[in-house]
Specification:
The structure holds two protein chains of two kinds. By secondary structure, chain A is an all-alpha fold. Helices cover 55% and strands 1% of the residues of chain A. Chain A has 13 helices and two strands, in the order H-H-H-H-H-E-E-H-H-H-H-H-H-H-H. In chain A, strands 1-2 form a two-stranded antiparallel sheet. The termini of chain A are far apart. Chain B is α/β, with parallel strands linked by helices. Among the domains of chain B are: 171 residues, Rossmann fold; 70 residues, no CATH class. Chain B has a six-stranded mixed sheet with strand order 1-14-13-17-15-16. In chain B, a hairpin with an 8-residue loop joins strand 5 and strand 6. Chain B is globular and about 60 Å long. The termini of chain B are far apart. Classes of the chains: A mainly alpha, B alpha/beta. At the A-B interface, helix 1 of A face strand 15, strand 16, helix 10, helix 13 and helix 14 of B.
């Protein structure tokens, strides 16, 4: 027997869960999405993802008071940011986005666990505001040279106007919004379209989401409520006027909706805690996304929808506390 | 008999049961320590009043202390011997309490002094409750609330007596062994309890891994209005309010006792002890304790004299070199001891010894909401923890039902950030107890 006895408080056993394992699970769930992005867009995607991730990790290392690289959360932010950026975006912009994501989106709020908004989306919103043209210019996928060389735009000098070699394409949402052209559902599901680096392949994103739900990393209520809301609303509008409003399948599979619903809206820190709160929060993102897409000036609205819902998440939590055992009414 | 009802309460967690090491080992007897340390405060309520003096020779089973008032319990001599000293003794409560140092006679036959027997066929409710009070019986599940005080309920208020055999803490198998080996005592105890409470029926609640007890109970054909229910294995199934919810679908209102919904819960080992002692008018002299954990050599269940110091108990069962943490109770709610002079008391169901494990890294709360999905009471542990760290203890109580938390530990168990949530809640409760209630 040891000479001194340890004093500790109960419980003396744990379930084995840990933050770094949760973050690692997110990275695992993202791996097929990342692999497809690199296959689809070539070196441009690889460079965007790498630069965004390294920028996030370095910013975290420099600014964070406690060493939190080991928890993989900065890596998750970097990957999500990279996946949400257009491939072929000048790499210095991707790096700047990574710095903004961690510095403004995370450290400024107090670091891990304190961010009011999803840090990757904060980085993306910053870039969308600062560089609206570059953030809406989309590299055409599957170019024959994509594994041989980076597009010229990726290597643009800071503050120079990037050159796009004429290899750009419209995303399904922008072709619908500006030219009323819809895209084949199968192309959307398999990701054979232009768009942000990691948003195109809905099936792989759904697979990642199922993995996160099985591993209890993502709160299943959020994507379910979000996607169901989008499906119901857009089906309703489509029924009203099929020429003006696209069908539910197109709305669900196009743009950043899947990526946002599965990987960004489920950011635990910036979403509500309570089960009812999660339902409402998901539905709110769904409503906002549909409204921005159908009636706003932008073709895509997932990013702003999630950021707005992040802002009201604490309020939702306050309203929708669960009924405590043995009490009759909801509190707070 | 509804044997395979798998209904359960909301939420909860599934810790590894770790019961395999001890569940199949029969209860073994334990030797007397050279000096027994018998606290007069082993129960909730007022300490017993000493009725012996220093230097007095005592017979095993003789009273050392009388119950002092209604919420108190008698204490009996666990061995024949001499009272060496009456004064402060170490106790599992973490502080010194009044107690008796008793030196057992080495050569004594250790016959037990008996009192007035209580006949289950003829005794009235009041006589049974008085006999239980004289026997010094308290809740053996851990709370150690005096059983006679629990049984004094207005006539007709309790319609169901629940015998709690859901031993949901990992490692512990004492209730299981007692139910299996003392089935007749258990059934007799239930007979006494039904009469004492005037309840119309009793339910024996078992967890799925202890379902073989139900065969034993059915084998000893009984005319009791007793229903057997086998429940899913889940922690904290054995918590009174959750057990009532599972079995009866009734929700005990916040701040109330089970009697408010017509139920009364008695731990199975307590019922068996009533059945064992009352026919002979004896008091509690010993109890069955599980010794388990990686640090114990001879794991098992032992019938151990009350007052046996932990040091003697651990030397007797043997410990490995590496033991650095000793718990009383189960690993979910049990507390560590700093001092091995602490004796075994009536409320101790387990002694668990672990080797040192480095503490896990604590991260900030990432609001993953797993604690909300673990809390059996639907509290919001994440929010409570955040408020505790912000020092907003009052809001924890007024807006987030802090007082309802019974510290089962499910939230801390599940937390991926390894936050000491239960400890934070305890601190806040202690803080609020020190503030006068009039400060609003």
């Amino acid at each position: 027997m040891s000479d001194t006895l340890e004093i500790a408080t109960s419980p003396h056993v744990t379930g084995g869960a840990s933050v770094d394992r949760i973050m690692r699970d997110v990275v695992i769930a993202l791996a097929p999405v990342v692999a497809f992005a690199v296959y689809h867009f070539g070196l441009a995607a690889l460079a965007t993802l790498t630069v965004a991730t390294i920028a996030c990790l370095m910013t975290e290392r420099l600014l964070s008071k406690t060493q939190t690289l080991g928890d993989w959360s900065a890596a998750v932010t970097g990957l999500l940011l990279g996946l949400s950026l257009p491939p072929g975006l000048p790499l210095w912009m991707a790096a700047l986005g990574g710095v903004a994501a961690i510095a403004v989106g995370k450290t400024l709020f107090g670091g891990l666990g304190c961010n009011a908004f999803n840090p990757a989306l904060v980085g993306r919103a910053f870039l969308a505001a600062a560089f609206p043209a570059a953030m809406t210019t989309w590299l055409a996928p599957g170019g024959p040279e994509r594994f041989a060389m980076l597009p010229a735009s990726s290597l643009a000098w800071p503050f120079a106007t990037p050159a796009y070699d004429g290899m750009t394409a419209a995303t399904p949402l922008s072709s619908w919004k500006f030219s009323q052209v819809t895209t084949d559902t199968a192309d959307l599901a398999f990701g054979l379209t232009a768009g942000s680096t990691g948003e195109t392949c809905a099936l792989l994103i759904i697979a990642g989401g199922l993995y996160l739900i099985v591993r209890r990393v993502a709160n299943w209520r959020i994507p379910l409520s979000l996607l169901a809301t989008v499906a119901i609303l857009s089906a309703g509008f489509h029924a009203l006027d099929p020429t003006r409003f696209p069908d539910a399948g197109f709305m669900l599979l196009s743009g950043g909706l899947m990526l946002g619903a599965v990987f960004m809206a489920t950011d635990t820190v910036a979403s509500p805690l309570t089960p009812l709160g999660a339902w409402l929060y998901g539905a709110l993102i769904g409503v906002l996304t549909v409204m921005i897409r159908l009636f706003g000036g932008l073709p895509e609205g997932v990013m702003y929808a999630i950021l707005l819902a992040n802002a009201v998440a604490p309020l939702i939590d306050r309203w929708l506390q669960p009924r405590v055992f043995g009490t009759t009414r909801r509190s707070a | 008999m509804n044997l395979f009802s798998r209904r359960s309460f909301h939420h909860g967690v599934h810790p590894d049961s770790e019961k395999a090491a001890t569940r199949d080992l029969p209860i073994r007897r334990f030797p007397f320590a050279p000096l027994l340390v018998v606290p007069l405060e082993q129960h909730a309520g007022r300490p017993a009043r000493a009725v012996v003096r220093e230097g007095q020779e005592i017979r095993r089973g003789q009273k050392l202390g009388e119950a002092d008032g209604e919420i108190s319990a008698a204490v009996h001599a666990p061995a024949s011997g001499m009272v060496r000293r009456i004064g402060l003794v170490p106790s599992p409560l973490g502080r010194m309490v009044s107690g008796v140092y008793l030196e057992p006679w080495p050569g004594s036959t250790q016959e037990v002094a008996e009192g007035a027997p209580c006949d289950p066929a003829t005794a009235t409710s009041e006589e049974i409750i008085t006999a239980i009070k004289h026997a010094g019986i308290v809740g053996l599940g851990g709370a150690a609330f005096p059983t006679h005080a629990k049984l004094r309920v207005p006539d007709g208020q309790v319609d169901v007596l629940i015998i709690n055999g859901a031993e949901c803490e990992p490692y512990l198998t004492t209730d299981y062994r007692v139910m299996l080996e003392q089935t007749d005592d258990l059934l007799l105890g239930i007979r006494y309890l039904l009469k004492a409470t005037a309840a119309r029926r009793a339910i024996l609640a078992l967890e799925h891994h202890t379902r073989d007890v139900s065969d034993q109970v059915r084998a000893s054909a009984t005319d009791l209005p007793l229903e057997l229910r086998v429940l899913a294995v889940k922690y904290p199934q054995g918590a009174e309010k959750l057990l009532i919810k599972t079995l009866l679908g009734r929700e005990v209102p916040s701040g109330s006792h089970p009697v408010a919904v017509g139920a009364l819960c008695i731990n199975a080992a307590t019922a068996a002890e009533i059945g064992r002692l009352l026919p002979h008018g004896r008091g509690i002299l010993e109890r069955v304790v599980t010794f388990a954990g990686s640090g114990i050599d001879n794991k098992g269940n032992y019938r151990i004299p009350i007052g046996t110091p932990l040091r003697f108990a651990l030397e007797t069962v043997g410990t490995t070199e590496a033991v650095s943490r000793v718990l009383l109770g189960g690993p979910m709610m049990g507390q560590t001891v700093a001092d091995l002079d602490v004796p075994i008391t009536k409320g101790i169901s387990g002694v668990i010894a672990f080797a040192h494990t480095p503490p896990a890294t604590v991260y900030p709360c990432i609001r993953c909401a797993r604690c909300l999905e673990a809390c059996p009471l639907d509290l919001n542990p994440a929010e409570l923890g955040a408020l505790a760290r912000a020092g907003e203890h009052e809001r924890m109580a007024t807006e987030y039902h802090l007082a309802d938390c019974f510290e089962c530990g499910a939230c801390s168990f599940i937390c991926p950030s390894h936050l000491p949530l239960v400890q934070e809640f305890r601190s806040s409760k202690a803080y609020l107890r020190r503030i006068p209630a009039t400060s609003e």
